[in-house]
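User: Structure tokens for this complex, please. No commentary.
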Amino acid sequence: MRRNIIIILTFVGGLYYFLEFVLPGETGISKLIVEIGKVTLAIGACAFLLGVINLLRLHGTRVVLRRSGWHNSAALIVALFVMLIVHLVRYYSHAAEGDTVWRIYNLLWDNMRVPLDSTIFSLLAFYIVSAAYRSFRIKSGEAAVMMAAAVVVMLGQIPTGQEVTLWLKGYENDPGLWWLSRIRVDTIREWLMQYWNGAAQRGILFGAAIGGLAMSLRIWLSLERGSFFDRQ
Amino acid sequence: MNGEAPSRIAWYDRLQKIDPRIIYLVVFVLVSIPFFVPIPVKMEVSPVVRKLYDKVEEIAENNKRGPEKFVLLAMDWSPSVKAENQPQTAAMIEHLFRRGVRFAIMSHLLPEGPMMAERIAERIAKKYNKRYGVDWVNFGFRQMRFADYMAFVRDMYAIISKDYRGTPIRDVPMMKNIRGLRDFALVFDVTGSGAYADWVYYAQPEAHFDIGVGVTAIIGPSIRPLIDAGQVVGMMEGLSGAAQYEQLLNIRGQASRGMGSQNLAHLWVIIALILGNIGYLASRRREKKLKKELR
Amino acid sequence: MPEPTELEKKERISVEKLVFLIIAVLVVVYIACDCIVYSLRQGFDGFWERLGVGIGAICTIGIYSFLYRENPIYRFLEHILVGLSVGYGTGVVWTEVIQPQWLDRMFGAEGQPANYLWLLVLIPGVMWYFQLSRRHVWISRFVIMFFMGTGAGGAFRGTFQFFFSERGQVIQTFKPILTESAGSLHFTWLNFSNLVFVVVVLCVLSYFFFTFRHETNPVLRGSSRLGRYFLMVCFGTIFGTTIQGRMSLFIDRLVFLYHDWLGISG
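Assistant:
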């Protein structure tokens, strides 16, 4: 019974948007799209506490039972509530620039959140260089092609690489030697990116789209298997 | 005391096993050099950046002659990709303010983007004497899944009821001239993920605006098929894209200043690749030679 | 090379701790001096601004300490980041979605009449939270699957508009490989590029085409092998741009440390 209700809800949800797309506008089916959107926005937003509850369960347990690393979990919970409370106070008190709440909010945002987030991602700069050095080996023809393309793209996107062949730009309007201007590193890079990479990406897009469409059909018709779809 | 000779590591094996901390240190030193010894850089502007620039110029020119069109800045980025997306946002806002093209800021995926873009807009607005509500507006973050997004595309005001500062949207002076998404000639999506897909898949066929993107360099290659098809009119690809746009604007912003470091870092990566592969190819040659001798 | 003894390991760890401590003390002393100097120059505003920059520098250097070795400072800062991100995200959803799009509509605000029918949103809204209960998780599936259904239905629209509209991907793959000019046909550089484009698309598609066996079909075998090479070019370009992307992240952090914190203008 439950499964049937779920199947019906899934089908009806998808059916509306499918019909809205295929049927002409005169049928009036499109008039509901805005009202449905307003309601689904509110329903979707109601899930905002799920992540918080999960985090509190995990880290709260660690703090209460004093498990290893509990002080880190305590810091997480404190940071969460401090940020949330400061944000809400700033919003509802209409705090102006220079107010205490505004200062604290900026400290948390500009001086903690932004540096922490950007710095963690910037660690990747080191890892990609060391990974490229250690594992990018020309073990086959394909690897050689990949490396050649990578080097051309890297040289073509930096000023030094562009400078090396910039002098060839002068041949652009030469009737006999115009082709020399096409073998500048930045021009080759642009050509590779647009015509080779772009075409390969399009081929990948086609394949992914067919797979995505098939998957969507399976979900819409509840033919898919997995934890959301099967009987409990 | 034993009689064994000390073991020697061959040069080609040493080349393949440089300590990663040395690699990190070289990266750090090379990227730091331009901060002490400024390296002026001039870049060739790529066609995709030029097309984006020309599109904004076209909108500005058309606004002088006909009904006013606006630009929507979709700020779907977060602090983790600030390094590339922030200079792109700043360059675009500078161009829009300079040419008097009014714009709106919003995001439907990430809450941080509109706030970070607002800071940039406020900073650059002082240079051009622009005022919030008159020359630009910030819709803020509206988390939208497919159904809500379709409602937004059909009727913007159904989803946007207040601006970022809590003012009812109809009370913002600029909004008097905006009836819906069709009044936007260009959507400039700045993102470090696939957020542009929603605009291309669902919004563009309905509202018929052009789409420009400012993306992290990693995503740049995947935008190329869209540029080829005309679904995306132009692109700023990573820091170099932003630097090229700044060059077109004749300003030396954050992106241009960062290209000196990019230069040296790229050269080091190429050298590291070459060193590792010289060591690898030499060790492979040695192995083949040994196998031949053993036969 | 012989393994280090327990004593040697302990000595190394205490040297590392000493180095970490010295760096930490230097950073804190610098920040304190910076704050004092600016408070003398610009009062509380100057002090607060420099304190903020100093805290940002501590966060940055603390995260970079991970490059040497995993350590408690990095772990602590990582947890702070998660807490701040979730707190901010939750607050923004409340103030920018729930408050204006639901509560204001339900209770009426700024000229809008109250409409208590919006209370019904609570019923599907609360269903999300049954994911947390092992026994009643099936209740949450109603709302999850409804949203998945709407997304699946919308995929048809997205796919057909993206691929088959006037600017669609499929339509735009049909490119001219000859140009007509002054009554005759020419093969220009653009035509050559278009030909390359079409060949690459077809070869890449054939690489993913599994309806017929590649081994027994010589045409398919050849084109899929070519497709593999073209994919390698694609991956090489992605690698090249990834280097730029990752370096930009690090450059941005150095701009903060050198320019904003230490005042070195380059």
